[in-house]
């Protein structure tokens, strides 16, 4: 009885303490929620590591155009950056796909206005996509090839409906409609001058154009008529064009800029954290970018798959991931698709591919055997051509040379200015080289382009033709479901990276975004091509 | 004299024409073109037809002689063409940056003149004393330290000690002199120091040479005041090589401050030059080379005129 009373006393105490701490926690969380409540106002200043060539998203290919210009525009669909890679409507309110996958119907929101006050209709969306897919004479469209093969025609049956008729089903079509490059333009302006948007801005986005000083900065202010109520939070933004890394880091460190959306290397991150302490927040993610070792398949002895396999087998990617990620952007071990994406090969399966195994001694032993079998002598010399950019190219070049030296190869590192580098790649004037690939989304249609036969893809510098890979590419693009697609992708990967080892990824990049602790509503995603300032706000 | 001036001005035309032909051909020899840099440089997949269409739009599909003649014909009509990278007139792109570059060159020149002439003269007058040694150490240090490195030290010093950085965007002196000087005074000091080192060495040796001339001895023998001898006779003559050096350095500064502009993120002509070369923006590079050549030729011409005014022995008949 006594015991039970004591227990009962303890029970009361426990319950009281639990309630007390629960109340404290509840109060703390509600306080936190209160402090994290988005607030309106303020100007976001951010650094951009380049300058926009023209202002036309359909024509350009650089993030240096997207970062300052994209906040003026809307797209048909967009990626929800707080829940990446979820796709949501932007000017499209809803959409439907026909059962055969050949007709995509988009319903356009009502009440969307251009910055000059005119309403956005389906006519504008149709004109925009016709400019992208079927550009008129004298107009450049950088992504025409992504759509022209699948889109048959575009219709606007009424003012708020757009219909895309496809020639064949396309697994990537919907995601491509969320491309950050596909700014919605005004049909009337395009009709008068299809190149008007190269030098002018007129969109329906959350910010209105204010000023651009070439090579210096770009300014936008809040669009009071933006179709999403309560957005944007910011009164405006200013993009500072700072090409070099050191002054870009200094701009954040001094507080002249609050963020740089592309990303810094680990050294810059550490420098900022050390200098600014809790005034800086660091967000990190993987990045849909990688470096690839490109082998000239037309040159002897690299025309022998045994030699190419030996080259990939010699690389210790798992150790490289640990070492290089400390000093450069290189970090994740992955096959043809970004580790962590829905298309990525699981580690256990990846380890079966040449060069991705975890026992490097066994791999290198096999590499030496293959080289000997192919008649490549010990100390065989060749040249690795690389861009003269320190991060991450130079670091990776030095690393590769060391890896290949460990299987008895003697590699000469030649770093070139971009013009000479691309010229040599295009002409086939190289033995091995380092190429890169960056995309805005995880999509095999994009990531496999460089692996198609050279007559199908001008970006394949490895100089080979493989109808098997081309056919697998076509099939995966039309696959009815993800399971079927993954099966085809695994076959593609096995052939490209393992059996033939035409060219092979070294590592995937890490994206590091240090930013002022005042910047809220920003979430680092695996691509630097997105620029939606609508959700970002500044804490007091 | 007027005939000489006219002759020198007319001579500029074939010189600039020669420069134009040279730079036009040299750019075409360099591998790669702007279309390749734009697409391949960002890893964008574009079929050959798209690349060809872009080249045609920029006029790169025309024969070389046609490209050259249309560029020259434009210049004759004072139409320097449009930037292949931005699509805007090159004169507009250059004008945005010229004010900053000219002001920086001018400020650096002022810093250099105010440092070099007094220091060089004092060093010559106090030859082989501790004053001379100090000036020599100061000037040799200026020659040895690259201005961009000094710029980095200045920036790091401000960042570490004051957590402050000079403004990153240019404000015209006429709009806000305080903001303008807050940005440009530091690169002007960094560049001006190196510039002054060259001029100090030149001033010192020129004054030393002049001080040993017979007419200086004669002036002393006549019992003229030391100050008069120095200012009216020695310095005036010693300035001839110094002015030549200062003039050439000024012309160099207008387009040659590439690294300093990068360190301070200045939106100047030097940075535009390097970026345009990297982007293979032929029209922009060609125009910039012509502009900088013109500045060099014109400044040289001005230097010759000033020398003629300072030294009555120089007569261009």
How would you portray this structure in words?
The complex is a heterodimer of chains A (540) and B (317). Chain A is globular and about 70 Å long. Chain A is 34% helix and 22% strand. Chain A is α+β, with helices and mostly antiparallel strands and 540 residues long. In chain A, helix 7 packs parallel to helix 8 and helix 16 packs antiparallel against helix 17. In chain B, 77% of the residues lie in helices and 0% in strands. Chain B is mainly α. The mean pLDDT of chain B is 89. Chain B is globular and about 85 Å long. In chain B, helix 5 (90-125) packs across helix 8 (177-211) and helix 10 runs antiparallel to helix 13 (282-310).
CA radius of gyration of chain B: 24 Å
Strand content of chain A: 15-25%
Biggest sheet statistics of chain B: none
Low-confidence stretches of chain B: none
Beta-strand segment tally of chain B: 0
Low-confidence parts of chain A, pLDDT < 50 over ≥5 residues? Answer: 1-7, 29-34
Relative strand content of chain B: under 5%
Could you state the oligomeric state of the chains shown? heterodimer
* DSSP helix fraction of chain A: 25-40%
Radius of gyration of chain A in whole Å, from Cα? 26 Å
Largest interface, with counts of residues having CB < 8 Å to the other chain, equals: A-B, 55 and 51 residues
The secondary-structure element order of chain B is HHHHHHHHHHHHH
Count of DSSP E strands of chain A?
A: 19
State the end-to-end CA separation of chain A.
59 Å
Q: Helix content range of the residues of chain B, please?
A: over 70%
Give the SSE map:
The complex is a heterodimer of chains A (540) and B (317).
Chain A: H1 2-35, E1 43-48, H2 63-69, E2 77-79, E3 87-89, E4 92-97, E5 103-108, H3 122-133, H4 144-148, E6 151-158, E7 161-166, H5 173-176, H6 187-192, E8 207-213, E9 217-222, E10 236-241, H7 245-253, E11 259-260, H8 266-276, E12 280-295, H9 305-313, H10 317-327, E13 330-332, H11 347-350, H12 360-373, E14 380-387, H13 390-405, E15 409-416, H14 418-427, E16 432-438, H15 444-447, H16 467-478, H17 482-499, E17 503-516, E18 519-520, E19 537-538
Parallel strand pairs in A: 1-10, 1-11, 14-15, 14-16
Antiparallel strand pairs in A: 2-3, 4-5, 5-7, 6-7, 8-9, 9-10, 12-16, 12-17, 13-17, 18-19
Helix pairs in contact in A: 7-8, 9-12, 16-17
Chain B: H1 2-29, H2 34-39, H3 48-58, H4 64-76, H5 90-125, H6 130-144, H7 147-162, H8 177-211, H9 214-221, H10 226-256, H11 258-263, H12 269-279, H13 282-310
């Amino acid at each position: 009885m006594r015991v039970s009373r004591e227990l009962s006393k303890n029970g009361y105490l426990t319950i009281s303490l639990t309630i007390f701490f629960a109340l404290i926690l509840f109060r703390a969380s509600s306080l936190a929620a209160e402090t994290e409540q988005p607030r309106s106002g303020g100007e976001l200043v951010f650094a951009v590591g380049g300058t926009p060539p023209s202002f036309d998203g359909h024509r350009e290919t650089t993030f240096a155009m997207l970062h300052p210009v994209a906040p003026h525009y809307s797209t048909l669909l967009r990626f929800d950056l707080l829940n990446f890679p979820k796709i949501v409507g932007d000017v499209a309110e809803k959409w439907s796909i026909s059962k055969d996958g050949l007709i995509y119907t988009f319903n356009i929101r009502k009440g969307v206005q251009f910055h000059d006050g005119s309403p956005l209709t389906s006519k504008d969306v149709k004109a925009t996509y016709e400019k992208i897919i079927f550009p008129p004479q004298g107009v450049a469209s950088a992504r025409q090839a992504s759509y022209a093969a699948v889109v048959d025609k575009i219709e606007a049956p009424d003012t708020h409906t757009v219909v895309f008729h496809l020639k064949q089903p396309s697994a990537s079509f919907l995601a491509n409609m969320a491309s950050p490059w596909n700014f919605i333009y005004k049909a009337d302006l395009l009709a008068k001058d299809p190149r008007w948007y190269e030098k002018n801005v007129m969109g329906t986005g959350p910010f209105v154009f204010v000023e651009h000083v070439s090579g210096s900065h770009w300014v936008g202010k809040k669009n009071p008529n933006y179709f999403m109520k309560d957005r944007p939070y910011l009164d405006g933004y200013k993009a500072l064009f700072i090409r070099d890394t050191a002054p870009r880091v200094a701009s954040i460190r001094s507080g002249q800029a609050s963020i740089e959306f592309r990303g810094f290397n680990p050294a810059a991150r550490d420098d900022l954290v050390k200098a600014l302490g809790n005034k800086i927040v660091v967000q990190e993610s993987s990045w849909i970018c990688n470096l690839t070792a490109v082998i000239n398949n037309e040159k002897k002895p690299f025309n022998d798959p045994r030699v190419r396999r030996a080259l990939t087998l010699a690389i210790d990617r798992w150790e490289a991931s640990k070492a290089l990620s400390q000093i450069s952007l290189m970090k994740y071990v992955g096959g043809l698709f970004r580790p962590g994406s829905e298309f990525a090969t699981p580690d256990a399966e990846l380890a079966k591919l040449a060069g991705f195994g975890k026992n490097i001694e066994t791999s290198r032993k096999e590499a030496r055997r293959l080289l000997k079998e192919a008649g490549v002598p010990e100390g065989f010399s060749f040249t690795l051509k690389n861009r003269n950019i320190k991060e991450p190219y130079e670091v990776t070049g030095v690393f590769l040379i060391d890896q290949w030296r460990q299987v008895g190869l003697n590699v000469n590192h030649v770093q070139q200015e971009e013009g000479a580098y691309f010229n040599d790649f295009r002409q086939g004037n190289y033995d091995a080289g380092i190429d890169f690939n960056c995309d805005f989304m995880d999509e095999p249609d994009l990531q496999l382009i460089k692996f198609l036969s050279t007559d199908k893809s001008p970006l394949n510098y490895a100089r080979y033709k493989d109808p098997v890979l081309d056919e697998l590419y076509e099939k995966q693009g039309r696959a009815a479901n993800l399971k079927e697609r993954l099966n085809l992708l695994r076959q593609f990967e096995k052939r490209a990276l393992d059996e033939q080892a035409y060219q092979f990824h070294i590592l995937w990049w890490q994206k590091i975004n240090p930013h002022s602790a005042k910047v809220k509503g920003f979430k680092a995603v695996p691509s630097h091509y997105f620029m939606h300032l609508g959700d970002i706000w500044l804490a007091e | 004299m007027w005939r000489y001036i006219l002759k020198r001005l007319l001579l500029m035309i074939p010189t600039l024409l020669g420069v134009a032909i040279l730079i036009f051909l040299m750019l075409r020899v360099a591998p790669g073109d702007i279309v390749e840099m734009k697409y391949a440089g960002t890893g964008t997949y574009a079929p050959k037809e798209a690349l060809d269409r872009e080249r045609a739009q920029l006029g790169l599909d025309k024969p070389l002689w046609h490209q050259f003649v249309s560029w020259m014909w434009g210049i004759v009509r004072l139409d320097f063409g449009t930037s292949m990278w931005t699509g805007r007139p090159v004169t507009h792109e250059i004008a945005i940056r010229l004010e900053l570059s000219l002001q920086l060159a001018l400020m650096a020149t002022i810093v250099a003149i105010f440092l070099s002439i007094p220091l060089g003269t004092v060093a010559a007058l106090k030859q082989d004393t501790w004053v001379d040694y100090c000036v020599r150490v100061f000037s040799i240090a200026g020659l040895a330290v690259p201005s961009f490195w000094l710029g980095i030290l200045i920036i790091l010093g401000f960042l570490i000690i004051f957590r402050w950085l000079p403004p990153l965007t240019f404000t015209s002196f006429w709009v806000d002199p305080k903001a303008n000087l807050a940005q440009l005074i530091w690169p002007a000091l960094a560049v001006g120091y190196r510039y002054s080192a060259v001029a100090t060495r030149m001033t010192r040796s020129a004054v030393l040479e002049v001080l040993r001339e017979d007419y200086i001895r004669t002036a002393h023998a006549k019992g003229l005041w030391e100050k008069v001898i120095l200012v009216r006779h020695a310095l005036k003559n010693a300035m001839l090589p110094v002015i030549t050096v200062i003039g050439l350095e000024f012309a160099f500064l207008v387009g040659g401050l590439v690294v300093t502009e990068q360190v301070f993120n200045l939106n100047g002509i030097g940075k535009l030059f390097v970026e345009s070369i990297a982007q293979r923006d032929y029209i922009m590079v060609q125009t910039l080379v012509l502009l900088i050549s013109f500045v060099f030729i014109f400044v040289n011409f001005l230097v010759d005129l000033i020398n003629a005014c300072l030294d009555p022995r120089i007569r261009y008949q």
